[in-house]
């Protein structure tokens, strides 16, 4: 096989199928002399006539019949590789669904990763929604970061295990308290009992706290009445609400905490470990995972790896 040319294999298979050297020359756009030379070369390599000329045309020998399946498999692999190589140079838009707490920092990291890939690769960021599984299946979404494998997502992945996979990344290890810099919360010990006394803004993450937030559960279990001031779906909306109220909030990533802390008049401070453990005593910590299509374009792999590295940096 190592001494064969691709054209020799094509000539072999065409003669095998058509039984005619003239038809082969026409199909492959070769001269009759070129077809004859290819066939002669094959005969020399395999020390066999391979095809016997009869009135009905070329008839394969036993050796040719034994080679036919191997040659077809080789051509199939080559064709698949060719299609992959061709696709790698086609424009590709990578659509990534992210929670709001990862919406700063990660988009630039993904754009940097995309700039190193062959072809024109662009990245667009979309908010999480309840249909991410179906969207990855139909190709309208390339991948999605989740905080928790809810029953709906587990069922969808289980039913489509030949196409979808969930790559587990990391467990959230901390939370930051965020509020205006002159908020009275900073004058007190930052324990959950005290934090529950202030209006609370929930930054919703689909599949994690869009129905109920861990702090709501903690307060209910501990007998505290939490005043939910508002539920928002972006960091911009969170900042706007904190400006216009006496509310506080939590964010679970370093990038979100740094982003809020960078604004004049705001402060972010990590909740102590014992308080974080207490908060999640009634509801699991966030479990970051990446939902992907198993058969997606190979160029997505570096993007997926960049997502995973960034999340580990931000939640551990």
Secondary structure topology:
Blueprint: H1 6-18, H2 21-28, H3 32-46, E1 51-54, E2 57-60, H4 62-87, E3 92-98, H5 106-115, E4 121-127, H6 132-138, E5 143-146, H7 151-159, E6 164-171, E7 176-180, H8 192-195, E8 200-203, H9 214-222, E9 228-232, H10 235-243, E10 248-251, H11 254-261, E11 266-270, H12 273-279, E12 287-293, H13 300-315
Parallel strand pairs: 3-4, 3-5, 8-9, 8-10
Antiparallel strand pairs: 1-2, 5-12, 6-12, 7-10, 7-11
- Give the strand line-up of the largest sheet: 4-3-5-12-6
**What name is given to the CATH topology of the largest domain?**
D-Maltodextrin-Binding Protein, domain 2
Number of helical elements: 13
In total, the number of domains comes to 3
Q: Give the termini separation.
A: 51 Å
CATH superfamily of the largest domain: Periplasmic binding protein-like II
What is the second-level CATH architecture of the largest domain? 3-Layer(aba) Sandwich
Q: Which runs of at least 5 residues are low in confidence (pLDDT < 50)?
A: none
| Residue share in helix | 40-55%
- Biggest β-sheet strands, sense, barrel: 5 strands, mixed
Q: Decide which structural class fits the backbone.
A: alpha/beta
User: Radius of gyration in whole Å, from Cα?
Assistant: 30 Å
Describe the structure concisely.
With 316 residues, this protein is of the alpha/beta class. Helices cover 45% and strands 20% of the residues.
């Amino acid at each position: 096989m190592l001494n064969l040319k691709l054209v020799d294999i094509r000539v072999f298979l065409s003669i095998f199928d058509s039984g005619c050297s003239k038809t082969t020359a026409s199909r492959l756009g070769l001269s009759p002399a070129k077809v004859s030379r290819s066939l002669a070369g094959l005969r020399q390599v395999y020390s066999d006539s391979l095809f016997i000329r009869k009135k009905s045309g070329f008839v394969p020998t036993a050796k040719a019949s034994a080679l036919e399946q191997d040659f077809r498999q080789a051509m199939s692999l080559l064709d698949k590789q060719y299609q992959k190589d061709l696709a790698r140079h086609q424009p590709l838009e990578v659509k990534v669904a992210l929670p709001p707490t990862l919406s700063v920092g990660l988009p630039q990291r993904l754009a940097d990763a995309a700039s190193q890939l062959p072809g024109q690769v662009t990245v667009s960021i979309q908010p999480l929604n309840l249909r991410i599984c179906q969207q990855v299946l139909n190709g309208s979404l390339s991948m999605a970061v989740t905080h928790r494998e809810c029953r709906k997502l587990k069922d969808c992945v289980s039913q489509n295990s030949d196409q979808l996979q969930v790559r587990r990344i990391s467990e959230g290890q901390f939370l930051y308290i965020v509020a205006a810099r002159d908020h009275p919360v900073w004058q007190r010990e930052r324990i959950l009992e005290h934090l529950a006394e202030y209006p609370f803004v929930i930054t919703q993450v689909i599949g994690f706290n869009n129905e109920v937030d861990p702090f709501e559960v903690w307060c209910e279990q501990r007998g505290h009445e939490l005043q939910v001031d508002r539920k928002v779906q972006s960091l911009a909306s969170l900042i706007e609400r904190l400006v216009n109220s006496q509310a506080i909030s939590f964010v679970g990533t370093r990038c979100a905490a740094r982003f809020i802390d960078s604004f004049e008049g705001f402060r972010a401070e990590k909740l102590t470990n014992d308080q974080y453990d207490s908060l999640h005593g009634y509801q699991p910590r966030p479990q970051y995972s990446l939902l992907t299509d198993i058969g997606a374009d190979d160029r997505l792999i570096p993007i997926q790896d960049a997502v995973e590295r960034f999340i580990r940096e931000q939640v551990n």
